[in-house]
Specification:
Structural class of chain B: mainly alpha
Number of strands of chain B: 0
Helix content of chain B: 55-70%
CATH topology of chain B: Serine Threonine Protein Phosphatase 5, Tetratricopeptide repeat
Radius of gyration of chain B: 16 Å
Strand content of chain B: under 5%
CATH class of the largest domain in chain A: Alpha Beta
Largest interface: A-B, 19 and 22 residues
CATH topology of the largest domain in chain A: TIM Barrel
Number of strands of chain A: 24
Shape of chain A: globular
Largest sheet of chain B: none
Oligomer: heterodimer
Shape of chain B: globular
Radius of gyration of chain A: 30 Å
Number of helices of chain A: 34
Distance between the termini of chain B: 23 Å
CATH superfamily of chain B: DhaL domain
């Protein structure tokens, strides 16, 4: 928990403010009062030594926020900082926040367990509520600061009838109550049409200016949405904790109005750009700190060719095709955000679809081609320009904002017309010029994420998406800090606006104040030191504190990854994905082609072990030559070993190639997507056949080639004992295992968060596999996302996983985590988390170590 | 008279400064009342009385640790007892002087000048004040400059300290017409003009006390062991 230190001239004032802080932040709040002098008569003044002591008293790794009154308090606080050990200074922030308001706001945020940066932002924004109260219309900017997109989900409409409304302590109680549940809660003031505001932020709630008699709309989403609303209703029934006598209308305090449909959101149709210093909160997707300019990737300027149409009719037809294709894109985008974002967000897409049928656009565009002799792109661009310009002349800001929508749709059509990559690509602004920046995008598809170049991309910020979507996974594997699901407001951030992105807290600070930048840079410097240390030790074996050597392998997708894997300190390759050979061409690769490719990988490893996974393709991959039937549900379809067994010639060829390399190198083979023992038996038969045919052909075969299976189908994990006699090793594919156990597609952002590999259901299966393997003498590896997750590694080792395989970029840090782990202690911890009730519960104890 | 700064000289200087502050306490407070919060005299007096108490209470070991350690003790004492902005500012002056002075038992004029310069730089870094902002710096900066010049010319300690005090006096007087740009007085804006700055005044007292006592041959409070 972030600690607070209150520095002021009066000991009484400091103690009084500390008392207020504890009242709103909870008894466990770490707050230190450093007021007055430790002299007879307790004279007014500040004492740097006393400040330093107070900081030491409340200090923890989470950091300390120092609030000061004025004059010598500032000097004493600065001096106190210099008295403290240098390594601690980075996590101590002196803030210019107002002393009393700032302390109260910071106390609430600290009490909720927010990061130092968030606590500081809350403190600094603390005057906004008072400003809004005293001059309700004066400072719209301040009231916007905490505006969020309302999460979808159940709502509760209340009329607030306690004396002070949602201010000060009632607001703090509201925030604390809402934060007690696994739910995203937002609140709008219906009466004044303010909000929605995040219920996690005292400032945001307070700036709604909810007074007695105002109606509020509370909206919640997430697993405990209903419970959160019920608790808020109880709190409201209790006058938000205000003393009864303060509320003359006690008894009829709150009317619970009818539930309102989700469409009734009061969000402005066009979000304003986030105010400087505002913090957008999303989900942590890839760890790390990034400070840089925003590079909105959907806004790449498009060069429109000039000149006459090649053929007017053909140009018109091309325009029609582009309009149809764009409509398809928009519908898909709508489907992907509908429900997860508010219905209002989805409605934006409906408005965009309407533009595509708008005669005010289509008419001039067609005329441009037919009468003015412009090419289709030029004619369309001119029509869009004119329409946008018309919108922009309107007085109403809401209508003016339509201009941006027209341009956005116009660009989408142009991209189709000119055959440019959709919304994203190496030609995009910023990246193309080689300028470093933080990529800002609605969401990243795997194709888009695959184009991210770590040399140019400091960080990734997505408005939508989940932490286990492919984009997030790729960002992690590239070592690029990322935050996803930050909300639509992110898309209003203009090109070049400075951003500070925290991939661990899941926050993006827009145009961060100097103090935030300093704090971030301090953390980044610390992280860089840690990374340098990890890198320096990357090539040494990873040995736990109690002496167990844990091989840390790389997951690679082709020969070109091997060099990076070895450079990153990989002790071998724990997962060679062989799809690269099969996806690249319109025919299956020959056995010789495969043999050469696997040999390049094995040779690149210089004697380190290599695990080859046989083809793991299905109907979702473009293997045209297999003529696979289109499937309703490819992830539950003919894929992995099922495909291999249904096309034995394909699998046998691959196995022969693997065996030929295994004759000269330490290679083992692994079958994916195994559900039954029978599949393993048949696959082993094919392997035996392949070996026999090689011997017959006079080719060298290995004396022994270990055989393993991926454990990713829950049935295999549950029946693991039956597999024990048939395999030499197990490798846990934690991504798919989690997705199948929790029945949640990790590519579907709406449910992706469910497919958490740290869910106890997944961990219990891992435990089961590890126990059976220990009895049978098999080794257990993990090769999913979990294997490279610093939080998960001690748990995996504690559960009995002996080998880890991960994206090369994660290896140095993972080895450091292994080195810091004590297996005996990890075993105890693993025992505890198996009893946990949720992934959240698992993450908490694991994160505290 | 000696030509080096000794621990005995330092204690004599600090006692003389404490006495001067006690004597002029009301005057400093009156100056502060005109443009500040009327506590500079009482704050400095409380701080310097604490320093004198510390000097008397130094154990023989501490008493013999060298010029630097003594100056640092003074700095920490002021930080904890003055209370106003003068606490961290005079605290920085003595702490940084102490750091620059090192562990020698005696300092030459040149070494003393280096220490004073370091101390004044410390005050500037702490308060972020520039010459002409109507602060302590207006007395301290010219004083440090004069001291360095005197040391460079090879003047005796007594002469160097006298010139230092004269420069401080001139700087102090020059604050009267200035408009304050730092500290509480800056809230007054133009109205701060016409009043001598209390911080510059106490800084002059400090340099004046040095001219009177620092070159003295007084023995340390306790015999060295």
């Amino acid at each position: 928990m972030v600690g607070l230190v209150l520095v002021c001239h009066s000991a009484k004032l400091a103690e009084g403010v500390a008392e207020l802080a504890v009242q709103v932040g909870g008894e466990s709040l770490r707050v230190g009062a450093a007021g007055g002098l430790d002299q007879p008569g307790s004279p007014l003044g500040t004492d740097a030594v006393r400040v330093a002591r107070a900081i030491e008293d409340v200090w923890s790794e989470d950091g300390v926020l120092v609030l000061m009154d004025l004059g010598s308090a500032v000097l004493s606080a600065e001096m106190a900082l210099e008295m403290l050990p240098e390594e601690r200074r980075e996590s101590i922030l002196l803030t210019e926040a107002p002393f009393v308001e700032g302390a109260v706001a910071a106390a609430v945020a600290a009490g909720l367990g927010d990061s130092l940066e968030k606590v500081a932002v809350e403190a600094r924004g603390a005057l906004a509520a008072k400003a809004a109260h005293l001059a309700p219309q004066a400072d719209e900017g301040a009231t916007r600061a905490g505006t969020v997109q309302a999460p979808p989900g159940p709502t509760l409409r209340l009329t607030v009838e306690n004396a002070s409304g949602l201010h000060a302590r009632p607001a703090a109680r509201f925030v604390r109550t809402a934060a007690g549940f696994e739910a995203d809660v937002s609140v709008s003031n219906i009466t004044t049409e303010r909000g929605p505001a995040s219920a996690r932020s005292l400032n945001a709630v307070a700036t709604l200016g909810v007074r007695r008699g105002d109606q509020i709309l509370v909206r919640a989403s997430g697993p405990q949405a209903e419970e959160a609303l019920a608790a808020i209703r109880r709190l409201a029934d209790d006058d938000f904790g205000d003393p009864r006598e303060a509320c003359p209308q006690a008894g009829a305090k709150v009317r619970e109005d009818q539930s309102v449909p989700a469409e009734a959101g009061v969000a402005p149709l066009c979000d304003p750009a986030p105010a400087p210093g505002s913090v957008l909160t999303g989900l942590p997707a890839s760890p790390g700190i990034a400070i840089g300019e925003a590079r909105p990737l959907w806004a790449a300027p498009i060069e429109v060719p000039e000149g006459p149409p090649q053929d007017r009719a053909a140009d018109l037809a091309a325009l029609e095709r582009a309009l149809i294709a764009t409509a398809g894109d928009i519908r898909r985008a709508r489907a992907s955000v509908a429900g997860r974002a508010s219905a209002y967000d989805a409605a934006i897409f409906d408005a965009h679809l309407l533009f595509l049928e708008d005669e005010a656009l289509l008419g001039p565009a067609r005329e441009g081609v037919m009468q003015d002799g412009k090419n289709a792109a030029q004619a369309w661009a001119a029509a869009v320009f004119a329409a946008a310009a018309t919108w922009e002349t309107l007085a109403d800001p809401y209508q003016r904002a339509r201009a941006a929508d027209v341009r956005s749709v116009g660009d989408q059509v142009l991209r189709h017309l000119l055959d440019l990559p959709a919304d994203f690509g190496p030609s995009s602004a910023g990246l193309d010029s080689g300028a470093l920046g933080i990529v800002v995008a609605p969401d990243l598809t795997p194709a888009e994420a695959a184009r991210l170049d770590p040399a140019h991309v400091l960080g990734v910020a997505c408005a939508f998406g989940g932490p286990t979507s492919h984009g997030a996974i790729l960002a992690r594997s590239l070592g690029i800090p990322a935050v996803v699901g930050a909300g639509r407001a992110l898309l209003r951030v203009a090109d070049g606006i400075p951003l500070a992105l925290d991939g661990e807290a899941g926050t993006i600070t827009v145009d961060p104040p100097a103090a935030t930048i300093l704090a971030f840079e301090g953390r980044r410097a610390r992280r860089a030191r840690e990374e340098a240390e990890a890198q320096a030790r990357a090539h040494l074996p990873a040995v736990t504190r109690d002496g167990t050597v844990v091989p840390v392998y790389a997951n690679v997708a082709g020969p070109e990854d091997v060099r990076a894997a070895v450079a990153a300190g990989a002790d071998g390759v724990g997962l060679l994905r062989t799809e690269f050979l099969f996806l690249a061409a319109d025919h299956p690769p020959s056995e010789d082609e495969q043999e050469r490719a696997y040999r390049v990988v094995a040779e690149g490893l210089g004697g380190r072990p290599l695990t080859v996974r046989t083809l793991d393709a299905g109907a979702d991959k473009q293997l045209s030559y297999l003529h696979l039937e289109r499937e309703q549900n490819p992830s539950l379809g003919l894929r992995g070993i099922r495909l291999g067994l249904s096309r034995p010639e394909l699998l046998t060829g691959q196995l022969r190639a693997v065996l030929r390399v295994a004759a000269d190198h330490p290679v083992r083979v692994m079958f994916p997507m195994v559900a039954t023992v029978d599949e393993v038996r048949r696959a082993r038969e094919l392997l035996d056949e392949a070996r026999a045919s090689l011997v017959e052909a006079g080719l060298a075969v290995p004396g022994r080639c270990d055989v393993g299976i991926m454990v990713e189908v829950p049935a295999a994990a549950l029946m693991i004992e039956t597999f024990v006699p048939h395999v030499d090793f197990f490798s846990l594919g934690t991504n798919d295992l989690a997705q199948y156990v929790l029945a949640a597609d990790r590519g579907n952002a709406e449910v992706a968060a469910l497919a958490d590999g740290l869910h106890p259901a997944v961990l219990r299966l891992i435990d089961r596999v590890a126990r059976a393997a220990a009895e049978g003498g098999q080794s257990v590896a993990a090769c999913g996302e979990l294997a490279g997750d610093p939080l998960a590694i001690p748990l995996l080792l504690g559960l009995g996983v002996a080998e880890l395989s991960m994206a090369p970029a994660r290896i140095p840090a993972a080895k450091q985590v292994v080195r810091a782990t004590d297996v005996a202690a990890a075993r105890r911890l693993a025992g505890e988390v198996l009893a946990a009730a949720s992934a959240g519960e698992v993450r908490r104890p694991a994160g505290r170590r | 008279m000696r030509d080096t700064v000794t621990q005995g000289g330092l204690t004599a200087w600090l006692r003389a400064f404490a006495a001067a502050v006690a004597r002029d306490r009301e005057e400093l407070t009156d100056l502060d009342a005109a443009i500040g919060d009327a506590d500079h005299g009482s704050n400095m007096d409380r701080g310097m009385q604490a320093v004198v108490g510390k000097l008397g209470g130094l154990s023989p070991d501490e008493a013999g640790v060298g010029v630097g350690a003594l100056l640092k003790t003074v700095g920490m004492t002021l930080v904890s007892t003055v209370g106003g902005a003068a606490g961290p500012l005079y605290g920085s002056l003595f702490l940084d002087m102490g750091k620059a002075a090192g562990e020698d038992a005696e300092l030459t004029v040149a070494q003393w000048a280096t220490a004073v310069e370091a101390g004044v730089r410390g005050v500037q870094a702490r308060g972020k004040a520039e010459l002409g902002d109507k602060t302590m710096i207006d007395a301290l900066a010219p004083a440090a400059e004069a001291l360095s010049a005197a040391a460079a010319c090879g003047l005796s300690l007594a002469d160097a300290l006298r010139r230092t005090a004269e420069a401080a006096a001139q700087g102090m007087k020059a604050t009267t017409p200035l408009v304050a740009r730092k500290g509480r007085a800056s809230y007054l804006g133009e109205r701060s003009a016409g009043h001598q700055d209390p911080g510059a005044t106490s800084s002059w007292l400090l340099m004046q006390a040095a001219a009177e006592a620092l070159a003295s041959d007084a023995p340390p409070d306790r015999p060295r062991t």
